[in-house]
Every structure is written in C-alpha cells, then in structure tokens.
C-alpha cells in the first residue's frame, strides 16, 4: 500500500493558477498509474486527469482539457497537477489516487480502478 499526501490547494480568484502536489511514501510509484479526482459538495467524485507510469501518456476530463496538466517525477515519488485559468466550477476537494497496474489495464476515469487514495486538498475559486 502506498501513502499519498496532497498539498498546494487554496483560495484563488477566477483566472488564476494553482499547482497541486501528491507526495507518495511507503512504496515507489514508478510502476503505478496515477490519477487526480475531485469532489464538490453534494456531488460524486469525478475524474480530472490520469498519467501512465512512464509519464508519456495522459488523459483529461473534457472540462479541464487545455487548462490542467498532469505530470510526475518518479525520482521524487511525486505527481503534480498544474491548474491554469481556474473557474469557480473547479471548486472542490482534489484527491490523488494510485494503482499498481499499467495504464492500458486501468479504466483510468473510474474511481473504482484505484487502490490507494489521499485525503485531499481543498481548492476554492472565487468569481
């Protein structure tokens, strides 16, 4: 089991940027598919982005495509989510997720595909 801790959330005005980090410990995540999900109050957890173990493949939800970028540094056991042009609709708790499977074996947009989760970091975008 890998322990995940998110950081970097906060309050930002619409149009601003934030960079979330997900630090992993307990195991190296170099062979893990990693994902970011978010959950707004009263809503289900939704897919944001996913990245393959190598970092060469990434997928995004349509709502964030072109604004968010997922990346990883396996040497530092960390995954990032760069969020630009933030909108009030992006307000949510953002969770990092991991699964020790190759990218092509994972239904990357489904929360049920991931085995390990962080507690989340709050992102609030004001209009």
What's the short version?
The protein is mainly β and 127 residues long. 0% of the residues lie in helices and 48% in strands.
Descriptive key words:
4-stranded antiparallel sheet; 127 residues; mainly beta; 7-stranded mixed sheet; 0% helix
Structural features, described:
The protein is mainly β and 127 residues long. The protein has no helices and eleven strands. The strands form two sheets. Strands 2, 4, 5, 6, 9, 10 and 11 form a seven-stranded mixed β-sheet that branches. Strands 1-3-8-7 form a four-stranded antiparallel β-sheet, with no helix packed on it. Strand 7 (68-73) and strand 8 form a beta hairpin. The mean pLDDT is 97.
Beta-strand content estimate: over 45%
Tally of alpha and pi helices:
0
Largest sheet: 7 strands, mixed
Low-confidence segments, given as residue ranges, are none
Helix and strand element order = EEEEEEEEEEE
Mean pLDDT: 97
Radius of gyration: 13 Å
**Terminal Cα span:** 39 Å
SSE class: mainly beta
Total strand segments: 11
């Amino acid at each position: 089991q890998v322990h995940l801790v998110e950081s970097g959330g906060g309050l930002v005005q619409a149009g601003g940027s934030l960079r979330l980090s997900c630090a992993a410990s307990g195991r190296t995540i170099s062979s893990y598919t990693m994902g970011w999900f978010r959950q707004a109050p009263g809503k289900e957890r939704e897919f944001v982005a996913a990245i393959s173990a190598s970092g060469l493949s990434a997928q995004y939800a349509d709502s964030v495509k072109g604004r968010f970028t997922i990346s990883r540094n396996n040497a530092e056991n960390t995954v990032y989510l760069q969020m630009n042009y933030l909108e009030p609709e992006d307000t949510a708790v953002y969770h990092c997720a991991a699964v020790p499977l190759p990218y092509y074996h994972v239904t990357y947009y489904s929360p049920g595909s991931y085995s390990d989760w962080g507690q989340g970091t709050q992102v609030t975008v004001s209009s």
